[in-house]
Amino acid sequence: MSFYDAAVPAYLQILGSLSGLLARAEAHCEAKNIQPEVLLGARLYPDMLPLSKQIQLACDFAAKGCARLTHSDVPTTPDTEKSFAELRQRLAKTIDYVKTFKPAQFDGADSRDVTFPTGPDKNLTLKGQQFLTSFSFPNFYFHAATAHGILRHNGVEIGKRDFLGVS
Would you call 52 helix, strand, or coil by DSSP? Predict the structure, then answer.
């Protein structure tokens, strides 16, 4: 399996499923007469980030992960989304961005040094394979799964197949 095949399809699968989850959440709000801001601001626990930020961070880990692995310019996206439609648009833009990467860009990326920020004035350098499997993927899946958990906890009728994008 190429490094491209290990990374890009995995990001795309879950980004697509998150878009579907948001559509289901919006429909849930309409059916139950819930203001969208209630779900968008929902958290699993008070000290955790809200649904909107979980989606934004999942997008960031996918886009920045691909960029860092290929030594491309790392995109910056302001976190300004305040509606389901705006979050789905961010997901769509992230999907389009991730789709721009070509397999050849990932050749040798598994053993390439990847430097990334770990705090305000701290950077860490890992080999590409370790970066993907120990940092980028775990963070990406954490925020995606947390978004799913927030929606399920708030009554949106979704399950594992929805998270996987195969329902």
Answer: helix
At residue 119, φ and ψ (nearest 5 deg) are: 175, 180
**Are the C-beta atoms of 109 and 128 separated by less than 8 Å?**
yes
Cα-to-chain-centroid distance, residue 51 = 12
Helix (H) or strand (E) holding 24: helix 3-32
Count CB atoms within 10 A of the CB of residue 166.
Answer: 9
Residue 96 CA to residue 85 CA, distance in Å, equals 16
pLDDT, tens digit, for every residue of 69-125? 999 999 999 999 999 999 999 999 999 999 999 999 999 999 999 999 998 999 999
Enter the DSSP assignment of 135: I
DSSP string, 53-107: HHHHHHHHHHHHHHHHHTTPPPP-------SHHHHHHHHHHHHHHHHT--GGGGT
Arithmetic mean of pLDDT over the chain: 97
d(CA 124, CA 118): 6
Distances (CA, A) of 30 to 6, 23, 40, 55, 162: 38, 11, 14, 20, 19
